[in-house]
Amino acid sequence: MKFNTVYILFLGVCLIGATSADTDDEDDDVQVEVEDDDEVRVEKPQFVPPTIQKNVHFADSFNKKDEFKSRWTVSQAKKDGAEENLSKYDGKWKVEVPKSSAVEGDLGLVLKSKAKHHAVASKLNKPFKFDGKPLFVQYEVKYQDGIDCGGAYVKLLSADPALDLKQFHDKTPYTIMFGPDKCGLDNKLHFIFRHKNPKTGEIEEKHAKKPSAALDSYFTDKKTHKYSLVINPDNTFEVSVDGSVVNSGSLLEDFSPPVNPPKEIEDPNDKKPEDWDEKEKIPDPDAEKPEDWDENEPEKIVDSEATKPDGWLEDENKLVPDPDAEKPKDWDEEMDGEWEAPLIENPKCSDAPGCGKWEQPMIKNPKYKGKWRPPMIDNPNYQGIWKPRRIPNPNFFEDLDPYKMTPINAVGLELWSMTDEIVFDNFLVTDDKGVAEKWTEQTFQIKSAAEKASSGGRSVMDAISDATRERPWLWALILVVVVLPIVLIIAYCCMSKSEPETLAEAKKTDAVSPDDEKKEESADKEEKTGPGGDNKPNTKKSKASLEATEDDGDDEDEVDAEEEEEEAQEKNSESPRRSPRKRKSRKD
Predict the structure, then answer these.
(1) Distance CA 141, CA 111 (A)
(2) What are phi and psi of 418, to 5 degrees?
(3) Measured at the alpha carbon of residue 479, what is the angle toward residues 466 and 246, in degrees to the nearest 5?
(4) What value, to the nearest 5°, has the Cα angle with vertex 550 and ends 547 and 552?
(5) Could you tell me where this protein is found in the cell (predicted)?
(6) Scanning 305, 373, 456, 556, which has its CA 20 to 30 A from the CA of 148?
């Protein structure tokens, strides 16, 4: 049992250390004060604008309200194919401190309208060209009131000299669309890139495979989450949330439809021959209907042997008008017709075998065979399922470097949402991993730690959830920590209980054991032959043999023997003698 306790403590310490390792550094940024009345008050950290370094194509933390209008452009376009009152991009945006902000003075871009089209965009400091450097894109989203239906994804608009951000709408060409989207129970994390066919010039959207991780909590916990996308020159990509990778793969293999079309396709001009036989089975042309096969026999017939059950109420209807129903006060017979009480089940029929007219039931007809059909046999002319022949794909091409996408010149949010109060913050577009990491340290890590501190810290379940999301192998450790000790404790308890029960059973019974038999034989031998093996009777018995002899008496006759001895003492009261030793009655 000591081993189990030490084992549990050891594994528990390992688990706690693993779950808390990521938050130790973050929690150091949050100061906690203990007041005189023992109430704990969390002091909000003051917002410090992040430093913008080199190799930054775009960065905005919305730390100044005045800069929003000069840097971002609110669309004045109309959406094609929508009604006049819904076609305008008239959704409101506002730079403000979010509700329940955990960082003092931290501003964000807030979507303020429900059921509206929203569009806002900003030019990059310099266009991003896919010329051999990785692309790092990240930004933060917070659903302050949760989310019912709406997107929070970002569009990286394609570089075009004719790009007018005032006319930014859903058809504006983009290179990448990335970010969360939800409607109903469908939680998505988009990564879509537009690929240009080198032969035809057509643009086609390529959708990444679905993330393997669960996304539900990001839409429901009302906390800030950082969405990051990395596209590498070797055609690999990574999508992460709060630093945890939720999707990764290859631009060549993990998108639908694939970047490269198939080398061969089905000939669209090939047609199936008229005499092509695809029937694998056919009716046997040589089969004949048996002479005794009667197709006129019905499937069911009346059971002539059935009799009406006793107590059948043939004069009672199954349904009767409800006697408790009343005509509504607003019933107008001229408009509604004559009022009739609704029908209910006849209460008299509940205790009877049935009501109404009795008829003999129908039973299966033993002579029924149905319509005769010839048996099916293999078709000797079967040619298989026809497929058109395959020909070389005239539009085939092979793009082995889809990383080289259309250059990016602007960042835009073009959204429809049934939920307002969605916060966007800390946009970053760069080609330097170190810059992205430094930006995260100065923004998201501080904000995330402050939010956890302001909400009272994390519970054990929150810590486990966060840790296992980043390290799935921890589930194995949790399984060992929880399940194995329980099994060992149960096994130990079961084994501990079995031994006392065996001893108790031995005490409760007077059955003679093999050891007792050997002791009795040895005592009898010594009584007859005497000690040392001589033939003299042993007149002296040891205290142990006397006790053994007394214990061999039948417990059930003890009470009767004592009563007989008492009667004998009363008869010989003139010459009393010493009564034999009485054994105490055994307690069960």
Answers:
(1) 11
(2) -90, 0
(3) 35
(4) 110
(5) Endoplasmic reticulum membrane
(6) 456
